[in-house]
Amino acid sequence: MPEKPDGGAGKTQGGMAGFGNALKLSSEFIAGIGVGVGLGWFIDRMAGTSPWGLIIFLLLGFGAGVLNVLRSVGQVAEFGAKTPKDGKGSEKK
Amino acid sequence: MANDPIHQFQISKWIPIEIGGLDFSFTNSSAFMVATVAAAGAFLFLTTSSRGLVPGRLQSISEMAYEFIASMLRDAAGSQGMRFFPFVFSLFMFVLVANLLGLFPYFFTVTSHIIVTFALALLVIGTVIVYGFWKHGLGFLKLFVPEGVPVVLMPLVILIEIVSFLSRPISLSVRLFANMLAGHITLKVFAGFVTSLSALGAVGVAGAVLPLIMTVAITGLEFLVAFLQAYVFAVLTCMYLNDALHPSH
Question: Which member of A89, B15, B43, B134 lies 3.0 to 4.6 Å from B26 by CB, making a disulfide possible if both were Cys?
Answer without folding.
Answer: B15
